[in-house]
Design goal:
Distance between the termini: 20 Å
Shape: flat
Helix content: 55-70%
Number of strands: 0
Structural class: mainly alpha
Radius of gyration: 18 Å
C-alpha cells in the first residue's frame, strides 16, 4: 500500500513517527499554542463568524453534545 502524503511527511521525522498518535497530537497542540498569543491579531471576518456562532449557541440554535456523545462520535472515526 503506497504511503499517503501525510505519512510521507511524517517519515521525514522518524522520532516523531515512533510516538503514539496521542503524543503526536499533544505535541502538535503544544507547537500550535507556542506560535500564538493574546496579541495575535484576529481578522475581522473571523471575529464576525465567532460572534454569530456564540449568539447561535446562546439562543439554543446549535446542536449541543455531551462529552460522552462527542467521545462516541470520535471513536467511530
Amino acid at each position: 500500500m503506497p504511503a499517503t502524503p501525510q505519512q510521507s511527511r511524517l517519515a521525514a521525522f522518524p522520532e516523531l513517527a515512533r510516538l503514539s498518535k496521542a503524543r503526536r497530537l499533544q505535541l502538535a497542540d503544544e507547537l500550535w499554542m507556542s506560535g500564538i498569543s493574546d496579541e495575535t491579531p484576529v481578522p475581522q471576518w473571523h471575529q464576525e463568524i465567532l460572534d454569530q456562532r456564540w449568539k447561535d449557541y446562546q439562543a439554543g440554535k446549535t446542536k449541543r453534545l455531551t462529552l460522552k456523545q462527542l467521545e462516541q462520535r470520535l471513536a467511530k472515526r
